[in-house]
Amino acid sequence: MKKFIAFMVVCALGLFGCSSTSLPDGVSQTFYDNGKAVVEIMDDYFANDVTAAKAADKVQKVLDKLSKEDVSDSIDNESILNVISKIQSNLSYVSEADESEVDSVNTDLEIATNGLRTALGLND
Predict the structure, then answer these.
(1) Cβ contact 120:27 at 8 Å
(2) Stretch 19-35: mean pLDDT, rounded?
(3) Residue 124 within any structural domain of the chain
(4) Confidence of residue 21 (pLDDT cuts 50, 70, 90)
(5) Is 18 within the bounds of a domain?
(6) How many helical (H) and strand (E) elements, i.e. helices and strands, does the chain have?
(7) How far is CA 123 from its chain centroid?
(8) Which residues does UniProt assign to the signal peptide (predicted)?
(9) Are 36 and 66 in contact (CB under 8 A)?
(10) pTM for the full model?
């Protein structure tokens, strides 16, 4: 009886507890994966684990990959690309900005990152 109950628990977890997250509507796997990578880069930046210049370089590499993708069939993929581009631009600016401007640009970066996180369904 214990083996049967254990078997049922494993089956229930397999069916309900470990289901994979589905992609947001209109977002391709490529844009999801790369968008998630940018969110992780930004999390490292906000935790002061990487400099703005290093984060800008990492995000630029993601942009280089995504620039080869066709976005004409998905407004969502295009929006993700635009947000990532804005993040990269702001990071590049912060890496050379005066100290007085950094807080303002970091606020913009937080807003853009949170928007990207929401678009990808990563708020959970």
Answers:
(1) yes
(2) 85
(3) no
(4) low
(5) no
(6) 5, 0
(7) 10
(8) 1-24
(9) no
(10) 0.80
